[in-house]
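INTERNAL AUDIT FORM
Audit reference: QA-55
Scope: verify that the stored structure record matches its stored sequence.
Auditor: D.O.
Record contents follow.
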Amino acid sequence: MTKPQAEAAKPEQTPAGQPADLSAPAKTGATAPEQTPGSVPAAVDAAAKPKAPVVKKPVKKVPTYEDLGDDALLRDLRDQFGQAVISGQSFLGQQIFTVAPDALTEVMIYLKDTPKWHFDYLVDLTALDYLGDAERFCMVYHLYSHPLARLIRVKSRFREEAVVPSMCPVWQAANWMEREVYDMFGIHFLGHPDLKRIFLPDDWHGYPLRKDYDIKLQDQEWIRNHLRIRKIPS
């Protein structure tokens, strides 16, 4: 027997120098997990467990404008004013009637004075600036009928240079509301008894809620004259 063959035939030595237990199983790298009688391998057990159901989140419906359809008030307005009543829509349960500007006053008087409707309360009025549109400004009125417990919104579009008819002869509450719209948007109201600014000083230049108003510049001349600030920070 050669020396290398003799070296290979020697039994494995333990750290203490004693021969290794030949009855032990040979080492093959990773040891298999110990199995007990009746146990199930981990891979099989994981596959056997039912997967949790995938719950799909409900898709949120984007609110849209919907036609009022066969609404009694819309039918009545169109019977009275024809094509001057441009549309009747609903948005999130809010009823909106859009009318032509030249028929706005007549429609408002009809809504207030007709007994079956009697929108006796002007809740609010304001304006919207659609900069770039031919009909730049949109007047918005919120009307409430106490007998019907019904709230509606009336809209009408106007060109920038147009003069909007005042609603003061119809509802006295329109007085300060129209002054606010004049102060913030520069919209003039025909027939208003005292149209002047209500928030800003009389000598303020510009209308802060117009979309082309530069809020950074504001009225620098007024600030210099009244606040005595000579150098206005940029």
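Auditor finding: record pair retrieved intact. The chain has a mean pLDDT of 85.
Action required: none
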